[in-house]
TrEMBL record:
Gene3D superfamilies: Aldolase class I. Keywords: Magnesium, Metal-binding, Thiamine biosynthesis, Transferase. Binds 1 Mg(2+) ion per subunit. Condenses 4-methyl-5-(beta-hydroxyethyl)thiazole monophosphate (THZ-P) and 2-methyl-4-amino-5-hydroxymethyl pyrimidine pyrophosphate (HMP-PP) to form thiamine monophosphate (TMP). This is Thiamine-phosphate synthase. It comes from Apilactobacillus kunkeei. Signal peptide: none annotated. Its cofactor is Mg(2+). Its EC number is 2.5.1.3. One of its GO terms (biological process) is thiamine diphosphate biosynthetic process.
Length: 213
């Protein structure tokens, strides 16, 4: 699947650790989210994940079937082997994950994303031609990930986004009630975990994350 910055509009990230290890719940939420307008999905098994490699593979295959059904780009977090095995659409890595240079060599013709947190990291990313997009954050404090860096706020998001030569998605503590303020920076989209997982009305949540209503 070819990358377009519009795919970053509402970028949903989730793994079994975000739903109390309830894989069936994860699959149902991802299907509901795909059905109701998310524009990209990242499968991320980290932090307190208890899945074995075999279980992770089976979940990844099921999630691929769902995302393909709704034509939602499917990204794997920091696992080149898994991405290749299921032929996902792309891969995302953080600053402390697999080196971006290796990802670019091993993942040709895939969507490639990189997390950034500082001005220097954004400027370094600008020199990586094969990078498709960057993540910028955390914008606000978040409980969805362990070892989170300090929140940077909307003003710093705006500064980093203006510096970036790549499309960028914001991440970290973004919810229905603050997404519109985040989008005033003209960043290409918002990335969320808990706001969709905990939603009682996923369609309404996704609509608001797009800056509507």
């Amino acid at each position: 699947m070819k990358f377009a910055k519009e795919q970053l509009a509402v970028y949903f990230i989730a793994g079994s650790q975000n739903v109390g290890d309830d894989v069936d719940k994860l699959i149902q939420i991802v299907e509901d989210a795909c059905k109701n307008g998310i524009t990209m999905f990242q499968y991320r098994e980290k932090d307190q994940s208890t899945l074995t490699d075999a279980e992770k593979l089976q979940v990844a295959i099921q999630l691929k079937e769902i995302t393909a059904k709704y034509n939602v780009p499917y990204i794997i977090d920091d696992d080149i082997d898994l991405m290749k095995e299921i032929n996902a659409d792309g891969i995302h890595v953080g600053q402390d994950d697999t080196k971006i240079e290796r990802v670019i060599v091993e993942c040709p013709n895939k969507i490639i994303g990189l997390s950034t947190h500082t001005f220097d990291e954004v400027r370094t990313a600008n020199n990586v031609d094969s990078l498709d997009y960057i993540g910028i954050g955390p914008i606000f404090a978040t409980q969805s990930k362990l070892k989170v860096k300090p929140a940077i706020g909307i003003d710093e998001l705006n500064r980093l986004y203006q510096e970036s030569t790549h499309p960028a998605v914001s991440i970290g503590g973004i919810k229905e009630d603050n997404a519109k303020a985040v989008l005033t920076t003209n960043v290409d989209g918002v990335s969320v975990i808990s706001d969709i997982i905990d939603s009682s009305d996923i369609q309404q949540t996704i609509n608001r994350l797009k800056g509507n209503a």
